[in-house]
Design a protein that fits this description.
Helix content: 40-55%
Mean pLDDT: 97
CATH class: Alpha Beta
Order of helices and strands: EHEHEHEHEH
Number of strands: 5
Low-confidence stretches: none
Radius of gyration: 13 Å
CATH architecture: 3-Layer(aba) Sandwich
CATH superfamily: Response regulator
Length: about 120
């Protein structure tokens, strides 16, 4: 199965998403902020990234933009997973290079479908 990087500053969210993905047979790598997420993406070259937006330091929009502009990581699909549920946030996230945008709390069946469509 796929290796998926979860970038989120919430240990609870990381646990929930990791459990969901591991149950599907995926392996999980985690990062607690945008800077660490970029470093982990370059080191592990995951098949997909789940990116939170609201984090200390570099936010998820900034990290997504940096990853999609870097030739080393540009091919890795990113799904933004956030509490920011405004249409303007969704549009902005997709403009930064994300392939999809999901709001928390995450509905497992919907996330699975979105992940499968990108892998």
């Amino acid at each position: 199965m796929a290796q998926i990087l979860i970038v989120d500053d919430s240990p609870t969210e990381i646990h929930v998403l990791s459990s969901m993905l591991e149950k599907m047979g995926h392996s999980v790598v985690t990062a607690e902020n945008g800077e660490d997420g970029i470093a982990q993406a370059k080191e592990h070259k995951p098949d997909l990234i789940l990116m939170d937006v609201v984090m200390p330091g570099m936010n998820g929009f900034q990290a997504t933009r940096q990853l999609t502009k870097d030739s080393e990581t540009a091919e890795i699909p990113i799904i933004i997973v956030t509490t920011k549920d405004q249409e303007t946030d969704r549009v902005w996230g997709l403009r930064q290079g994300a392939k999809d945008y999901v709001t928390k709390p995450v509905e497992e069946a919907m996330l699975v479908e979105k992940i499968n469509s990108l892998l």
